[in-house]
């Protein structure tokens, strides 16, 4: 039994940060019968490479379609292309067809910011 425990620990410890994040999501969310009514994901996607991030976002969107999913996600702010063309620059957060909205927190104030 000790050998199995040691092998399990070695296996997980050898994973990259992104791989560990995926294992934790599968273990804590996707092995459930259904997604919780409210799911809070805190920086889980930060260590993922772009392809993995896209796959995880698609799986969450599909599996949790009837749930409220709150994602704490630090990302670079982009600029809305249409607003740049009109001369009015609006900062936005890349959505990748995942986020429906964005609440930006700065200086202890919450601001709605569009997705692009």
From TrEMBL:
UniProt-listed InterPro entries: P-loop_NTPase
Designated name of the protein: P-loop containing nucleoside triphosphate hydrolase protein
Naturally occurring in which organism (per UniProt): Fragilariopsis cylindrus CCMP1102
Lineage of the species this protein comes from: Eukaryota, Sar, Stramenopiles, Ochrophyta, Bacillariophyta
